[in-house]
Amino acid sequence: MSKKGQTPLWLRVWRRGKSKLKDFRVLCLGRLMRTFRTPRIPANADGKVLIHIGCGELDDPRYINMDKRKLSHIHLIGDVEDLSPIPKDYADLIYMCHILEHVSHLKLKDILVNLRERLKDGGVLRISVPDFDKMIHIYRETGTLAAIIPPLMGGQGYPENYHASVFTAEYLTKLLTEAGLNSVREWDPASAEYHDFDDWSGRLYAVGGRQFPISLNLEAIK
Asked: Can you tell me whether residue 201 is helix, strand or coil?
């Protein structure tokens, strides 16, 4: 039996088993499939080159997927700190969702410069990161520090899930401008071109039965 308000043991075991099965399917089978077939770089009808850095399990067929994990749909093995697989002056759009906060704040400027170099002239760098101003709002509304620790500092369940940078709109705009990007503006996950992702750029964060937006979504042009 379970205590009142506690998830039953059978449900916890079932969820754990389901999670492990998913990990096996995604990681083990994905790597095995890559030994027989390397995914083909997509060719869009409009000729646009779209790159999704840190895509994880998401797979939009219009995008070149880049991730450190060797999953079956990953075209380029690497991450935002190693952009060597991407040629310079190559992409029309580079998209990253909740990736940049994992990078040391000491490296941000150099990485943003490297990202700009991978864009064609007129190309767009589209970013979503946790918004420090929104976290402050959540804390003031709920008075609960524990509620904002995960989005502020990362889940910390494994080495790659620690946050090393924080962002406000003013600070990220300054970084993008200093990296040589122009026309910094907000973008809307509900209407942005080439965006059909169910990710943190548009999700709400639940605290005490209330839902809060948590992401800062900015894009800039080379």
From this structure: coil
Higher pLDDT, 33 or 81: 81
Contact at 8 Å (CB) between 63 and 42?
yes
Q: Is the pLDDT of residue 105 over 60?
A: yes
Q: How far is it, in rounded angstroms, from Cα 153 to Cα 135? A: 11
Residue 63, burial from CB neighbour count under 10 angstroms (0-12, 13-18, 19+): buried
pLDDT above 80 for 216 = yes
Q: Are the C-beta atoms of residues 109 and 178 closer than 8 Å to each other?
A: yes
Domain residue extents for the chain: 38-221
pLDDT reading at 31 higher than 60: no
What is the pTM (predicted TM-score) of this model? 0.84
> At residue 132, what are phi and psi to the nearest 5 degrees?
-60, -35
CA 82 from chain centre, in angstroms, equals: 16
Place of tokens 């904002």: 148
Rounded mean pLDDT of 48-52? 98
CATH of domain 38-221: 3.40.50.150
